[in-house]
Amino acid sequence: MSAPAAYALAPGIWRIPVAPSDGINAFVLRGDDGQVTLIDAGLPFGWKRLVAGLTAAGVDVRDVTKVLVTHAHNDHVGNVARVVRESQAPVSAHRDDASYLTAGRVPSIEQGGILRPLLSRWARYEPIGVDSTFGDGELLDIAGGLRVLHTPGHTPGHTSYFHEPTGVLITGDVIHFYRGTIRIGMKMYCHDISLNERSAQRLAEPKAEVVAFTHGAHLSDAARPRLHSFLAERLRRNG
């Protein structure tokens, strides 16, 4: 049996796997006002999955009225320029990642060793026009209220989003979910590893009912206790 093209996280919110085995996720939010917001869009090879997921959520690419991004890495924004061409939707991002998006490049990574030059070359993507930027704590007028959580470290402007009406927390890459376990974001792709660790603790702030990752399946069963347990263990481990 094939996996669903989209998973309903709450009324009007879906997770769209744009790579096999929940490897990369995008998200779509449909507001009562008819607005359709896409968060991230995956890599070009995942275009058909993105379209199928939007269809499963009852919309077409051309229906998208706004695009948000979690961060300026190609596995999350590689399709954004194409979405914009088809929908004419404006793009919003945290101000600290905006310059990378418009240049079509990723921020520097702290580690990576001999792989760093290869990662930098591979990680190029089609430049993205950023129509507006936001900062930490802003409440975006999207689907009844989407709160911005600036969680830098993976990239300077990495952003998590909390949908206040439903309690859906979209973590971005600050943490992942892999083989049934919450994990910290991969160090080899981090701009600032220690900052990413500190930012992860911010995810305990909202009263999350669903925790949705940009890599991995989402958590809806005891999501908040599981998240808090993980964060407490990371805090204990790192002093």
What does this structure look like?
There is one protein chain. By secondary structure, the chain is α/β, with parallel strands linked by helices. The protein has helices at residues 47-56, 74-77, 80-87, 98-103, 116-122, 193-200, 223-237, and strands at residues 7-10, 13-17, 25-30, 36-39, 66-68, 91-94, 132-134, 139-140, 146-150, 159-163, 168-170, 175-178, 181-184, 210-212. It has a single domain, classed as Metallo-beta-lactamase, Chain A (4-Layer Sandwich). It has seven helices and 14 strands. The strands form three sheets. A seven-stranded mixed sheet has the order 1-2-3-4-5-6-7, covered by helices on one side. The protein has a five-stranded mixed sheet with strand order 8-9-10-11-14. The protein has a two-stranded antiparallel ribbon with strand order 12-13. A hairpin with a 2-residue loop joins strand 12 (175-178) and strand 13 (181-184). It starts with 6 loop residues before the first strand and ends with a helix.
